[in-house]
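<derive_structure_tokens>
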Amino acid sequence: QVQLVESGGGLVQAGDSLRLSCAASRRTFSDRAMGWFRQAPGKEREFVAAINWSGRNTYYVDSVKGRFTISRDSAKNTMYLQMNSLKPEDTAVYYCAAKPWRCSDDSNAMSYWGKGTLVTVSS
């Protein structure tokens, strides 16, 4: 069974850091591109970051470049999102997702989704 489980969300102040984790079943993780998306209240789900199967290629939405870092550990079947210098506008439910082959910033292209973890950044 394909499973993605996010963790690491919470309530922090502006300027703080958080690290999100996405634990995947081996079948989900191997040879698949993975990504993080987020959805703020009243807004559509948006792309945050993506990483290819090897971890060598990463992509970010402009608003998080220089602050967020996506990575993956194949030995642990886990993907991470290190979030630094958090801002109130980063407040959202963060979802991890996976798809075969190439990375995508299109949520409709993703094959598997986790249930999300809430990140709240207070000013």
